[in-house]
């Protein structure tokens, strides 16, 4: 199978770069193993600066967002967000604008710590009540919060702008929506999305011009060679198995891209759990032009992007990189 | 120190991320099923210690669609953990209903003999009520029609003698559905392969792949049948066929992936030569080794449904590669959702309502496309979708047969 670009990883970074490339007229194939970090999405894209290109691309795919401002965490705190899905509670300033809140308690649903949320909002001087779904009609509160679960989305459908969604425990419904929309759109514009499959082999070719990726092979497609001019490595960090580790070392399993992991294993973690954890900064290495380094040599057609460069990167950093890489291919 | 995971079916790789629960069609439509994570890797730890933790009534709700395995970011064989627990710990033998539903080939052979009567009888509300009340097959379900002439009979009468003229040969595992219910798909396959310059052979002995037997806990019989199939395929390959093609996604997944793990059948040597015809054809097209002559003025609007087992195989990429090359074909790709039938699951009266509820998202999506037909590789999806929507369902091979000028294509490929 021949493509202009093969993207390994079907999460946010992979899909957005895939859509951009496909719209530029390329033939793109995304290979995705298992679901992605989007399934932990809060309904917002993290980062401080929004990007109009990203927002426009999301909109084309059917994902409407509000730029800038703050999202409300399930624990009742405002955090800066680059983009927030329409329909979610969103504040333009770092302080809650409204005086009164109601939180809807859904029967049998435990995915939102409602009393905790009530306490933190009350501590911020707000009047907070807990109501049942039937009490939405006639509720005097300025803001009515419903957890972003399936039943919460049904309420949102019924009551529209009168209720606002708030992120709940994963698996994330907004994340699933974002993922499904991006995936559908990518396929609609002609992209090939291989789901639930793993790249198990890659072939690098070395000649006088340097090193390049020749082909990759996957678990499900067997001896099928997947060949492309360019490869984007957007396979994520440790949780998505874009990076793997054992007791001795950290490695990137598909191409063996070099990483910045310290040799001393004890330097990977900080003893205090709440400290900044060094392993979250571990990522693969690239040259200045963004080519992956394998055994210190740049691979001329392999571009790492997204969390494989470091787990703490924000969504917007990843998205901007995805667009930048795609536009240069 | 143990540095690598050695747990069976990647049990220890489960991170408890719960992503599998988000994609489980059953859990999202009923409170009666605790979900793949709970019934799979979570409960397995307890079951390993004590069989008392084996809760068959919960595990029976799993329809083995394997969407959990497709979604798992760490390769845990969630559905297989559930199915192996049922295989190894169940104290109940199959009932009459299970035996009837699972023995697709025996039932098919009997019904074919009296096809008009069988179709008439299973179509009667009275017989449906009797089946509902006696064995527990739901009375609201439409039964697949039986064909009067088996595919094998058609092949021996009308096709076998022409196959020798082709330089290349493939063997075809047609499955029970093509043989008893829908010989036309098998005929289309023969015509398409012939048009590409390939003769089609049948296996010396073909048994039902056993997927329905396994779903109903009849593993010994499934293993016997599986061994016959693999032995016949091995023989065919030794006899010079280039590959073994199939048209059913569930049979294919079962024979490729579940034979070794669930039945203990060693088929490594055969596996790489066994696959859906769409895979074989897609690769022929990519390699540029066949010429295609399309029917002039062909026009059709279809939507493609990725059957659950097709998703697990990961081969819809081949089908889409073929469909995207058909001029005049308008193609919508449906969001991946289970149709709810899952083989024999939806035929059981206790599952009927759940089965229809699971499928409702897909049914609505299908109607919303305004397409003329649904394309999918799975026969039980076909029954379910045709019963629950206004659209006919066709296999991609039949669509290809419809779009190609078969005669001209054959001329172009045989010189």
Please give a handful of descriptors for the protein shown:
heterodimer; A: 329 residues; alpha/beta; FAD/NAD(P)-binding domain; Rossmann fold; 2 domains; 5-stranded parallel β-sheet; 4-stranded parallel β-sheet; elongated; B: 415 residues; Fumarate Reductase Iron-sulfur Protein, Chain B, domain 2; 3 domains; 23 helices
Please provide a written account of the structure:
The complex is a heterodimer of chains A (329) and B (415). In chain A, 22% of the residues lie in helices and 26% in strands. Chain A has 2 domains: 2-40 and 176-328, FAD/NAD(P)-binding domain (3-Layer(bba) Sandwich), CATH 3.50.50; 44-166, Rossmann fold (3-Layer(aba) Sandwich). In chain A, the strands form 7 sheets. A 5-stranded parallel beta sheet of chain A has the order 13-2-1-16-21, with helices on one face. Chain A has a 4-stranded parallel beta sheet with strand order 10-9-11-12, with helices on both faces. By secondary structure, chain A is α/β, with parallel strands linked by helices. Chain B has 415 residues and is an alpha/beta fold. Chain B has a 4-stranded parallel beta sheet, with helices on both faces. The longest helix of chain B is centred in the middle third of the chain and has 20 residues, at 219-238. Chain B starts with 18 loop residues before the first helix and ends with a helix. The mean pLDDT of chain B is 92. Classes of the chains: A alpha/beta (329), B alpha/beta (415).
Uncertain runs of chain A are none
Shape assignment of chain B: globular
Low-pLDDT parts of chain B are: none
What is the annotated CATH architecture of the largest domain in chain A? 3-Layer(bba) Sandwich
The share of residues in extended strands of chain B comes to: 5-15%
SSE layout:
The complex is a heterodimer of chains A (329) and B (415).
Chain A: E1 2-8, H1 12-23, E2 28-32, E3 44-45, H2 52-60, E4 65-67, E5 70-72, E6 78-80, E7 83-85, E8 90-91, E9 100-104, H3 114-123, E10 127-131, E11 143-147, H4 150-159, E12 163-166, H5 173-188, E13 192-195, E14 199-207, E15 210-218, E16 227-233, E17 244-245, E18 250-251, E19 293-294, E20 297-298, E21 302-304, H6 315-328
Parallel strand pairs in A: 1-2, 1-16, 2-13, 9-10, 9-11, 11-12, 16-21
Antiparallel strand pairs in A: 3-7, 4-7, 5-6, 5-8, 14-15, 17-18, 19-20
Helix pairs in contact in A: 1-5, 1-6
Chain B: H1 19-23, H2 36-49, H3 56-59, H4 67-71, H5 78-89, H6 96-102, H7 104-113, H8 115-123, H9 125-134, H10 151-159, E1 168-173, H11 175-181, H12 183-195, E2 198-202, H13 211-215, H14 219-238, E3 244-246, H15 249-263, H16 268-271, E4 274-276, H17 277-286, E5 300-304, H18 308-313, H19 316-323, E6 329-333, H20 352-369, E7 373-375, H21 379-388, E8 393-394, H22 396-403, H23 406-413
Helix pairs in contact in B: 2-5, 7-8, 7-11, 10-12, 11-12, 12-22, 12-23, 14-15, 17-19
